[in-house]
Amino acid sequence: MATTKKAQTQTGSRAIRAIFADATRSVADEAANTLPDPDPNEPRDGIKAGQWPGFPSSNMPPNHPVQIIGRDTDGKIYALTATGHMRVIEKWDMPTLYDLHAPHSNALKWAFPAFGEKKVPDPDNPETPKKIQVVKRVERDLVAECFINEAARKPDFDPNTQHRGRGGWVDSQNNFVWHSGGWLWKGSKSSLSRSRPAQHDGFLYTRQAATIEPWSEHVAQEESPALRALQDLRTWNWERPWLDPILLLGWLATSIMGGALRYRPIIFTTGGAGVGKSRLQELIGGMLEGVVSTTVNTTAAGIYQRAKHDALPFLVDELESKPGSSRAESVIELARVAYSGGDISRGGQDHEATTFTARQSFMFSAINPPPMGAQDKSRMAVLNLGRLQLTAGQVKREMVIKPEVDGRMLLRQVMDGWSEFSKGLLPSYAGILNEHGLSARAIDTFGTLLAAAELLVGPAELEDMGLPVSHPRHLGEVIAAATAIERTENLDNWHACIDHLMQSAIDGWREGVKPTVGSVCERVRTDHQFELSHARERLALANLSILGRGKAGPNTGPCLAVPADGPTLQNIFGNTIWHKSVWYSALKQAPTDIVLRGLGNAQKVKINGSAKHCLLIDLQKFDEYAAKVE
Fold first, then answer.
1. Where are the alpha helices (DSSP H) in 33-186?
2. What is the pLDDT of residue 10?
3. For the whole model, what pTM was predicted?
4. 489 Rama class: left (phi>0) / alpha (psi -120 to 50) / beta
5. Where do the record's region annotations for Disordered lie (predicted)?
6. Which long-range contacts (CB under 8 A, 24 or more apart) does 32-37 make?
7. Class of domain 221-344+354-387+400-487
8. What average pLDDT is seen over the chain?
9. Is 429 exposed, middle or buried (CB count within 10 Å of its CB: 0-12, 13-18, 19+)?
């Protein structure tokens, strides 16, 4: 088996410093969690209860533990609690107010006091206690008045678009931000900083369940756990052993980048039983423990209810094609939306729509993947696995996973290298692949994965795998050739529509065979002795017709005439996405020299004795175009 030259994880004094930094932060956090909450009758910074400037509604109380975020267009008020969680205030009762302020309920009483009498000893008259005014409870109406006014002073807030959960993000300065649940982290090779979740650059980050925190020391490529991961990945029987492990390694990084990426490539591993798909997910899940969610045979609803506003990745095993079920297809649809960060809305029991922006990375595995359209396949790298062939006496090496440090070190690499990745590696790979004719979508998918892999392990390791990284021209040729089959399947919508029509059988036997639309068109195009009248007779059975060369305009080839309706055409497209005359709109998406519109967007052609407005497919131009498509 192939092995990499290096597979070390950070050790020595730097690892000791990282562990010490973790311990120091832990002690500081424990101290912060025990901050005092003085008696509400005691002055705070010299200010007595209920006497702060602006009381009760011109300002918020000074240093108040609760922050008002704003309100939405329906008037709902959103607040950040004393512990950093987001709440929507729908009631002004005491449980709601205590939940907002806990564990600093005395601050609530100090800011909005309701006074009452209390008897205390009188030094001048010991036999008769005197009465004084003390804070006894909270004046709820004053709280409501203050918070409602503060919300009105703030810009409107949309929790669906402005609320960011855990995972990777970028700020307005293109700095990578990691939301670990309890902290927001920023870093460079020389420093690491953190702050509590809050509003930042127009987005709200709130406290949530903890996920991993970055490694406290810079992680160089030669000490990255990605080297060990690459060594493990090379032990599977990949269809493209010099490329597929690198693409999967790149996904390790892009899954951490999450919402920081403009596009999040999808990985789909396929292969029969026993090729190691589940074992592969075990490796990925172990290295990203605390970051990735793993699930088997799930639903789209189960994923987005779990994901909410997070930008954390998902591993989905056994996403199989099952007859009569669209469950897997809906999961693929969700991944497609998350690829570029689209909004998803779902109705609720209270008739209120729930909306969130999906920005998760997905990795799937299956023996038989579900049906997918070109729009799905163009967003993913499909990695095919074969059964591992072990020679006599050979033992498959066990995976080495260190979940307590692997993900944290990979995260630190992403944080420290974000600028290099986004400003250098990503544009470089995009330029190389663009020069070799890859589409924008293919560049966004394969270019992003390759750039992320190089960020983790460096160009020398990719060269060792067989990728000619140091020779851009050769690299572009290799990647273009390796992904040609996948990209061939990703036809444009109009092209796929014509392909379906050409491959459809005509319901009528001729010369002992049942011809297809394409076979008739091909004979017209190549056999100049073939009578157009015979072609029209056969095509009329499919509600189609054909025009001879030059009949649709100067320099036009023979043209297939396609109307917007017809019972046989409805049957041909009945179980496709182009049903109910949608094919007519799809054909209009083609280049105008391939699908001719004529006057008024169509030309009248007589079919089965009836004159119909038709779009004209120039068969010669379409054949020339199709020959160039990879």
1. 94-101, 105-111, 140-153, 159-162
2. 67
3. 0.79
4. alpha
5. 29-64
6. 37/103, 37/104, 37/105, 37/106, 37/107
7. alpha beta
8. 88
9. buried
